[in-house]
Design brief:
The protein has 260 residues and is mostly helical. It contains ten helices and two strands, in the order αααααααααββα.
């Protein structure tokens, strides 16, 4: 009955809309913090259990991006919040993909691609000079040389597509296989904005009497959907990680029994 009263107020009063939105935002933030806090405890647990580094990496990076999402959402920065929510979906897919044992090393090896790209161009270099510039260029060349050999070996093993993405399947195929086809639609919408598509200007440009009106600044209107999506993805990530920990504990207990 209380919800119906609130919704009736929404239809009658703009103020009620704001109040209801504030209530929902508080609930979302509370849920967000609970999942974030829970994952903070799980990452050290992975280290203590001597899990494969891939689990530690994907969990730590997901946690960092989710914290960014929280900060962006509560400060009204909807566009950056959407980008973080989009990334959280990818972290979820990556964690699910790690169920396949052969993907653990493959996932970690793909860091070589990022190392090569980062070493190829240093945007800070134009601001350096003298010995500092010389040392920076030396480090870049050494990084390119050392990581290049390892990357060539990885590409020889996993194929040329490995240079573009770590997983052999597309994001869509992975999402459908994981039962996340609806969530993938959000990923696509957020991706369009990330890649500079015209949809990134939604709610930022109006045409009034033939003249464009451009709004510049944080996009508060995007915050609720970004936060709601991020909470959903974090919940799924948390459940998947807990299940993986449980599977690993069961495997450890079984292996110890088998050895005895």
């Amino acid at each position: 009955m209380a919800d119906q009263t609130s919704m009736a107020g929404v239809a009658a009063s703009p103020l009620a809309i704001v109040e209801l939105a504030a209530q929902q935002a508080r609930r979302l933030v509370a849920a967000s913090n609970s999942y974030s806090d829970a994952l903070v405890g799980l990452v050290p647990a992975l280290c203590r259990m001597d899990c494969h580094p891939a689990y530690v990496v994907v969990s730590a990076v997901c946690l960092n991006d989710f914290n960014d999402l929280l900060f962006d959402a509560v400060s009204g920065r909807g566009r950056s919040a959407h980008r973080s929510a989009r990334t959280a979906f990818e972290h979820l897919l990556n964690l699910i993909a790690l169920r396949e044992p052969s993907h653990l090393t493959r996932f970690m090896c793909h860091s070589l691609v990022g190392t090569q790209l980062a070493a190829a161009w240093n945007p800070i270099e134009p601001f350096l000079s003298g010995k500092v510039l010389k040392a920076s260029r030396h480090r870049q060349k050494k990084l390119l040389r050392d990581s290049g050999k390892e990357l060539d070996e990885a590409i020889a093993e996993y194929g040329a597509v490995f240079h573009r993405q770590w997983h052999p399947e597309t994001v869509r195929d992975r999402a459908v296989a994981a039962g996340l086809e609806r969530e993938y639609d959000f990923f696509r919408a957020a991706s369009a904005a990330v890649h500079g598509a015209a949809s990134a200007m939604e709610d930022a440009v109006w045409i009034v009497d033939g003249d464009p009106i451009i709004r510049v600044g944080p996009s508060v209107v995007l915050c609720p959907s970004a936060l709601a999506a991020g909470v959903l993805f974090m919940k799924q990530f948390y459940c998947e990680l807990r299940a993986e920990l449980a599977r690993r504990r069961s495997w450890v207990r079984w292996s110890r029994w088998a050895i005895r």
